[in-house]
Amino acid sequence: MTKLIVISSSIKIVLFSGQAQFLFYFFSFQPEKSSLATQVTFSGLFYQINLLSTIQFFSAMSNACLSRLQCSYPKTLKSLPWRRKCIGGFCRMFSTSAAPLISPTAPLTVSSPSSSVSAKCVVQSDAPQLSDEWFALRRDRLTASTFSTALGFWKGTRRFELWHDKVYASETQFVEVARRNAMEWGVLNEAAAIDQYRSITGCEVNSSGFAIHSADQFDWLGASPDGLLGCFHGGGILEVKCPYNKGKPEIALPWSTMPFYHMPQVQGQLEVMDRGWADLYCWTPNGSTIFRVHRDCNYWKLIHGILQEFWWENVIPAREALLAREEEEAKSYWPASTHKQTGLAISRSIKLAGKCKLLCRETSGHVEFYHN
């Protein structure tokens, strides 16, 4: 029996005559030995494809940990359920979804993963935003859009509500009406906003899936920016905001300065995606503005410590207690409404937001660029 072995960023595909099996292997590259050292084997089949004809072509990318095999196959392709890799009693989700930005004509290559392109575990999902499936994809990790809440930036019970959602992992998140309306307004106008950004800048905006931090010890962190800008080396990300303006979005005006409370999300996205800069685009029916945000490792070090404490000292121990049917003990891990370093994180966010440059302002079709 002949077999062809193709190895991409983190998938080993073994083809037997008449049948294809997708076997998943996670490995590290050893340049000095020009070989691949297997670290963890994730056993089990995800797909089985009975080939009716010869393979047409392969396509793969080295910038994501999931690649795809393109071939002729019958319409009865069967997808098996999600599998979980359990570490210390907690599970990480894996999917066979293809990574974004894959060219069907791209050559299949094996290369040493660099710091900027290695193992970005992009999980594609077609789930509509705010749907149950959309929430489920984010349930088992702390995502960039919730960083400001986990840091304690907001008054009231927002931090506790986030903890409760993560600990009890309810099928549906309950979001207060005002916040849900604001989120729905953003979802409704996001596509139009991205088109407007393209028109203003002339930049191509590539779609992005849900990304997980590439480092195993940080895979509890995730992000899903609204777009990817440019190539991985020197590329950036796009984050779109459509202000709800306290329930009156139709009279909203674009920001003149970047709101500090968006800094944790943008810096978190840059960390997870391993990119150097972001364009924060504020879209309103009455105009728009673009701000350039550069990655700041010192800022990330500060907020990462707070996020890590929230996750590993509040969320995870409470989950363990629930698994042991100790609900009262789980409640003992309720977080305070703020962290002892919340004030410092806010201060640093304000300072960093003040340094972000306003690139341009668009009003009624007129675009003015600023050269600072």
Automatic annotation (TrEMBL):
Gene3D superfamilies for this protein: 3.90.320.10
One record GO biological process: DNA repair
All copies of domain YqaJ viral recombinase, residue ranges: 133-272
InterPro entries reported for this sequence: NF-kappa-B_Signaling_Reg (IPR051703), PDDEXK-like_dom_sf (IPR011604), Restrct_endonuc-II-like (IPR011335), YqaJ_viral_recombinase (IPR019080)
Protein name per its UniProtKB record: YqaJ viral recombinase domain-containing protein
Recorded superkingdom: Eukaryota
Pfam family, one: YqaJ
Source species of the chain: Rhizophora mucronata
